[in-house]
Amino acid sequence: MIWLALRQQRNQLLTAMALLVIVGVVLLVTGPNTLHLYDSTVAGCASHGDCPSALTNFKAKTKWAVVPEDLVMVVPALLGIFWGAPLVARELETGTFRLAWTQSVTRSRWLWVRLAIMTLAAMVVAGALTFMVAWWSSPIDRLRQTPFGYFDRHGVVPVAFAAFAVVLGAALGAVLRRTLPAMAATLAVFVAARLFVSSWLRPRLWPPIHLTTTFVGPTPSAPPTSIAGVPGERSAWIVSTTIYDRSDHVVGHNGGIGSNGLFEFRQANGSRAADFVGMGRCPNRFPVPTRTANASPFNHAARECVGSFHLHAVIAYQPASRYWPLQGLESAVFVVAALLVAGFTWWWVRRRLL
Questions:
Q1: pTM metric for this prediction
Q2: Of 148, 181, 271, 316, which sits most exposed with the smallest number of CB within 10 A?
Q3: Is residue 158 predicted with pLDDT exceeding 80?
Q4: Could you read off the pLDDT of 124-151 as tens digits, one per residue?
Q5: Are residues 33 and 177 in the same domain?
Q6: Cis, bond preceding 297 (omega within 30 deg of 0)
Q7: Taking Cα atoms as reference points, which of 195, 198, 171 lies closest to residue 183?
Q8: Do 143 and 190 fall into the same domain?
Q9: Which of 127, 139, 125 has its CA nearest to residue 65?
């Protein structure tokens, strides 16, 4: 039975192995160049006093580095579409299931063997690709503020994604009985599951640590959501920031003040009076004009104004030390989901498919 399943899926497996080898060769050839570029531009920039220009040069020459990491995110979905969805649907669509299920092998064994082979193969493909990309992008990772920024593209979670995607595709193929609709449904459900986990479940897998600190706000040249990081936790993942006034009323979130979620000051032309949007009139005077080549006077006035309102922020964050435990927890979620979906598929094939 195993030999027959491998023979039936050999084209898919060989194609995946060939593509994996091609990607590996490309990464192996270009990886040393990326490492050399890092060593020659960024590694020693502090001794030369030109780190800003060195970082700009390095980022400009490695701007296509997101392509291999995006591939890690896309491959599990492709495996679910092209390996999982046709696994049962093609047999039902062509009618060959009648022959397969009337032989000495039961339909349960037929399903479990095929599902196990393709799921394990998908995990191997996703794991090998993730390992190669992690090695290739290691110089770039050194410049990133937090490892949580590439959580979906490194570690063990892509392997769990691949297992879930294949099992999901097989289940939808068994229910829909048509390959193309099953492929489309696999993509939609898999993307929805990923979005749900990344945006809602992941921040709640492990209760974050809460830190109360004085809110100083971003500088005018920084993004509205930028805030001061967690002291002593440079690589922490800031889950959320809630801003309170002196009466402990919520006045903003994630660096923004008020309902519009912005952090800004408004000045009338030629006037030194300014309004802190969402809070009120600043007690201090601002320089005129507000935007000059040197923004330091304006930044100083902005900090003085913000301080007069006695705002404080409660930062919910995950320390960098929780990166691998969270990787394990999220992987376990997808593995358990895959087992549950596999059980549903087995029940459907046994009880609902005649």
A1: 0.85
A2: 271
A3: yes
A4: 999 999 999 999 988 888 777 788 988 9
A5: yes
A6: no
A7: 171
A8: yes
A9: 139
pLDDT at 1 over 60: no
**pLDDT for position 221:** 46
| pLDDT score of 104 more than 70 | no
- Collapsing DSSP to helix, strand or coil, 44 comes out as coil
Q: Domain residues for 100?
A: 2-205+322-351
Beta strands per DSSP E along the chain: 209-214, 237-244, 250-253, 256-257, 265-267, 274-276, 280-281, 312-318
Asked if residue 89 and residue 179 are part of one domain, the reply reads yes
Is the confidence at residue 226, as pLDDT, over 50?
no
Q: Are 123 and 338 in contact (CB under 8 A)?
A: no
Q: Is the dihedral of CA 47, 53, 56, 60 positive or negative?
A: negative
Contacts of 12 (CB under 8 A, 6+ apart): 82, 83
Cβ atoms within 10 Å of 46's Cβ, excluding its own: 10
Count the domains in the chain.
2
For residues 196 and 335, membership in a common domain is answered with yes
Measured distance CA(334)–CA(189) in Å, rounded: 13
- Whether residues 195 and 101 share a domain: the answer is yes
Residue that wins the pLDDT comparison between 74 and 234:
74
Identify the CA nearest to 255 among candidates 296, 219, 283.
Answer: 219
Strands 209-214 and 312-318: antiparallel
Q: Residue 22: what pLDDT? A: 93
The one-letter amino acid code at 229 reads G
Structure-token pair, residue 297: 């006077």
My answer on whether 155 and 265 are in the same domain is no
Looking at the structure, do residues 38 and 167 belong to the same domain, yes or no?
yes
| 68 and 164 co-located in one domain | yes
End-to-end CA gap in the chain: 21
Instruction: Please spell the DSSP secondary structure of 238-297, one letter per residue.
Output: EEEEEEE-TTS-EEEETTEETTTTB--EEE-TT---EEETTTEE-SS---SSS--S--HH
Q: Give the burial string for 332-351 (b: 16+ CB within 10 Å, else e).
A: ebbbebbeebbeebbeebee
What is the Cα–Cα distance from 319 to 323, expressed in whole angstroms? 8
CA-based torsion, 282, 284, 287, 293: positive or negative:
negative
